[in-house]
Amino acid sequence: MPVPRKPGVPHSDHPGVRWDAPTSKWIGKVYDRSDRVGKRSKQIHVGYFVDEQACADACATKRAEVDAA
Q1: Following DSSP, what letter does each residue of 4-44 receive, concatenated?
Q2: Which among 46, 53, 67 is positioned nearest to 12, based on CA atoms?
């Protein structure tokens, strides 16, 4: 079942990329499944971006670094 979206709020189809309303920027996060915090995967903050595609590219690069480690 698709997740209902709020009208007027940007959303991304890229994994790890979401809109941060307080800063009006895209935020990127990657999860490191090899490092656990309790039961959850460690969350790595990639950064805030004005451009959605730049955020998606940075997340993909960081995800490749995490997977290689």
Answers
A1: PPPTT----SSTTEEEETTTTEEEEEEEEEEEEETTEEEEE
A2: 53
- Hey, is 67 helix, strand or coil? helix
What pLDDT, in 10s, does the model give residues 29-44? 998 888 777 788 889 9
| Identity at 18, one-letter amino acid code | R
Reduced to 3 states, what is the DSSP secondary structure of residue 50?
Answer: coil
User: In the block, which residue shows the tokens 């990657």?
Assistant: 30
Q: What is the pTM of this model?
A: 0.80
User: Would you tell me how many other CB atoms lie within 10 Å of the CB of residue 17?
Assistant: 23
- Buried b / exposed e over 22-45, threshold 16 CB at 10 Å, is eeeebbbbbebeeeeeeeeeeebe
